[in-house]
Amino acid sequence: MGAPAYYIIYTFIRIVTLLPLPVLYGLSYPIWFIICCFPGYRRKVTRNNLRNAFPDKSPGEIRRIERRFYMHLADMFIETLKAGHMPEKEIKRRFRVTNPELPMEIMRSGRDVLAVGGHYNNWEWLIATPLYMDGRIVIIYKPLKDKRFNELIFKLRSRFGIVLTPMSGIVRELISFRNQGIRTMSVFIADQAPPRTEVRYWTRFLNQDTAVYLGAEKISTRFNMAVLFLNYRKVRRGHYELTFEELFSETGNLPEYTVTEAHVKRLEELIKEKPEHWIWSHRRWKHRKEVAVG
Prior knowledge:
The model has no long low-confidence stretch (mean pLDDT about 90). A 7-stranded mixed β-sheet has the order 1-9-8-2-5-3-4. A two-stranded antiparallel sheet has the order 6-7. It has helices at about 5-15, 20-25, 30-35, 45-55, 60-85, 90-95, 100-110, 145-155, 170-180, 215-220, 260-275, 290-294; strands at about 95, 115, 135-140, 165, 185-190, 200-205, 210, 225-235, 240-250. With about 290 residues, it is an alpha/beta fold. Strand 6 (about 200-205) and strand 7 (about 210) form a beta hairpin. The protein is globular. The chain has one domain (about 5-294). Helix 3 (about 30-35) packs across helix 5 (about 60-85) and helix 4 (about 45-55) packs across helix 5. The chain starts with a helix and ends with a helix.
C-alpha cells in the first residue's frame, strides 16, 4: 500500500477511535449488514464450517449462530481499533484478568509459562494483560507483508509492554531472557491452519480431521514450561474476562502430542459453549488429511 493511502486510513482510524466505545458500537450494525447480508464476507466458508462442525444442528440453528457470529465479528473490529487508543483505566474496566497470581507464582518459583488459546472472543485485548501482572509477556505473532501496517499493528499491540516476536525468533528470545534471569510467559494463539508444507500432526477438532501447529508443544517441552490455557469469556458487550487454567505444571517428560491434544480439546469445549464467539470465517480446514499425507 502506498504512503498516501496508509496515512489516510491511519488518520481516519485515529479520529474515529477518539469516540467513546458505546458510540462506536453504532457502526457495528452497518458493518454487520455488509459482512453478513450484502455483499457478505466469506459466508460460504462460514456456513460450511458451521455445518461440518455441528451436523446435528438444524439449518435454522446454523443461521442463528452465523448471524450472531457476524455481529460479534463487527463488534470485535470496533473493539480492536478502539483498544489501540483506549486509556489504561478504561481497558482495565473492560478487560479483567481474574487470576493473574497463577502465572506470576509460577514465574516467581523460577519457571517459565506458556499460555495457549485460540481465536475466541476478543483475543486482541490480551495486549492489556501486563496491566495485571509482573514478568515479561511474549506474544508470538505473524508479521504483515505491508511494512507500514506491520509497524502500526506492532505499536498498538505492544503499547502496554507486550514483547512481540515472530515464531522464527521465539527460541532465541526465550534463551536471551533466561540468560538475563528474566522469567517469561509466552502466548500462543494456536488454532490457525498451518501451511501444507508444515503439517506434521492431525487430530479431531469440531467433528473434523484437523491439521494443527505443534509450536506450543515444542516450545513448552523444550524449556519444560508450565502450560496454561487462556479462557477468555465475553461477559457482555465490550466486557471480557480472562482466566488462566493450568493444563500442566511441567512438560519436559510428557508423551508426544499430550500438550497439543489438551489445548485443542479445551478450546473445542469453549467453542461448543458459545460457538458464535469463534472465528468461523477462517479457512481452517483448507487441507484434507488424505491429500496432505497421501
